[in-house]
Amino acid sequence: MRSNPTVNDSIVAAEWVLPIAGAAIHHGAVAVREGRIAWVGSLESLPSEFAGWPVALHAGVLTPGLVNGHTHLQYTGFADLGRGSYTSFEHWSEEFEVFYDAVQDPAEWGRAARDGAALALASGTTAFAEIVTDEPARGVLAEFGLQGIEYLEAIGETETRWNAGGREAFTAWLDQPTAGVVGVSPHAPYSLDGEVIRELTALARSRGMRIHSHVGESEVEASLYDFGNRDVLEIYGDMRDEFALIRNGGTGLSTARYAASIDLLGADSHLAHGIYLDRADRDLLRDSGTRVALCPRSNRVIGLAAAPVADYLREGHEIAVGTDSLSSSPSLDLLADVAALAELATSQGYADADLHERVLYAATVGGAAVLDRTDIGALREGMRADLAVFDVKVAEGEDPRTALVTRGEGSCTLTVIGGDVRHARGA
Ligand SMILES: [Zn+2]
Fold this sequence. Notes:
427 residues; Urease, subunit C, domain 1; 2 domains; hydrolase activity, acting on carbon-nitrogen (but not peptide) bonds; TIM Barrel; 15 strands; zinc; globular; four-stranded parallel sheet
């Protein structure tokens, strides 16, 4: 077997280096040894111990490998769905079910997840908060040497179903040996009974696993938790009457308060989307340590409102950013979502000079934080040598972060994982 080319025992240099943890470095360089970062600085201040090492000089901007805070790589084959446009979450869900039910061969989930991993790698992503709904998609991160967590998803479990074998099946799945890190994803507070979510989060916590769910993605979600509005559960047909929220006419709680009541919030949990949350709900997330991964392009395809990006930034949230899957997004290029976040924040009135710095932080350190990792997401001595280079031209006097955020999409020329070159273009 041919091994990957390596950057171990060499210097990766670029016109600009963005360590994220620290100021941008003009004519910067990273020394790599045994898959780790041995040194970061300006090329002209290279310590003598690295003086004899080969130097590869790249055009553009070098960053830590990007961290995708919310994906479902197993839906990479659903790109035709993601190229459409929809009028509501319920409308998109109906179309999604058609695609999902059409998959006959379970091996397709594994093939699609591998295709997705390759696409993401080619755009500079090296770590994922990845949701696995079907077993054949599991293990793909480890297979590709990618970092992150594969969250096993539970969906459509009422208490009745959970008690009739669902609990045993899910627990057995969770405890099945696998390569890589496992987490628990209660799909959403509307698609599982609250009691089931309480048990799922307890299962995760008793195993030291993280939790990841979809919250505040549908416009009508809040009215289900509040007074039992059935609309968000439309695709469940008659079965929706089996859900406790419908039977009981809701709980009178707001979305985040309901999520808190079923133990879904906490520093060991992060949520995708967080669109339809008011100030009190957002404060509850922040104060409970629950982070949000925003997926702006997916939201746009599905026809949802824009997430309150400017509010999240102003209110002191440390956000992450995700592409979601190709079933609701045009690509797995995380920098396209970073650009979309910046545009939204600006259109919502965020005018602080740190905007580009903060959205890049979301795609690196913010993502690492939702994976509970401190060894990825930044360039610092001792961290993993997971690197990406983007061939963007930085104008004279321009902040390289602005260049990367606004023109970085599609420009990745090099992706390195643990010192191994896993993508190289136009060298
Ligand atoms: Zn999702």
